[in-house]
Amino acid sequence: MAVSTLKSIVDAAFTQRYGVPAINIVNDLTMEAVLNGAVEARSPVIVQTSVKTVKSIGSQVLFALWESMTAGIDVPVALHLDHCPDRDVITECLERGWNSVLFDASLLPVEENQRQTIEVVAQARTFGAHVEGEIEAITGVEDGIGSSDEAARQSLEVSLRFIEATGVDVFAPAIGNAHGVYKREPVLDFQRVTDIVTAHPIPIALHGGSGLTDAQFADLISRGCAKVNISTALKIAYMKSNLAFLKDAEARDKWDPPSLFGHVRTDIVALTRNLAEQFGSAGKA
User: Fold this and answer.
1) Is the pLDDT of residue 140 over 80?
2) Domain residue spans in the chain?
3) H-assigned helices in 212-256
4) pLDDT over 80 (residue 79)
5) Which fold has domain 6-279?
6) Which of 101, 206, 243, 280 has the fewest CB atoms within 10 Å, i.e. the most exposed one?
7) Percent of the chain having pLDDT more than 90?
8) 214 catalytic, yes or no?
């Protein structure tokens, strides 16, 4: 177990039909809390970093934190670069030690996206790393990447041709899901997941997971969504936890940063543990 590969984690989840939380961390505290929440739940977990987080903290510091925090960990964990359209950042992270990347060329024409994704897969393989691919932009802007306009969905034939030509390990289709906070319950194309998986068995990544209902999660996971991305929910939990503690500290005029950190950590650990239970990955480590 311990530090594992994206493929080994999602392939097991895909075969057994459970979902693995893929959680975007924002700093050292959230990285440690997510990892420890997974340990408490005895669940595999995919720790995700956005391009914004990589640039703000630095790949060297982030990876040093990862190595330190995963030393001796006894549940399967992987480090994933999320939604990256920048080939230079992908190279930087692969060279540093990330073992999984999402090359997001969804704003390019499919043919050019496919051509470059083939190159990224070949590059990742030289590092023993794996690749997630997508051909449609997921609606919503996340950490400065994306668009608020819903992208046109490609045909099943185009999706299958992309999967087979590129050799990606995980595929992220647009199914009516969106990044950020849903204003209303989304209308999801569940059948699209089934159609892709039936034609080409491949673990599916569900983006825009924050805010879906239990029934929607369960249905999509049963169809093959083995990687379930969570970003907005962590950001909300992190900031609300800070806010609640600081309001109380102000009222009591008690200012103790370590207590603040401990309070926030407890909430992020609980979030991770609850997600593992919700997605069925708890106890799978």
Assistant:
1) no
2) 6-279
3) 214-223, 232-252
4) yes
5) TIM Barrel (3.20.20)
6) 243
7) 84
8) no
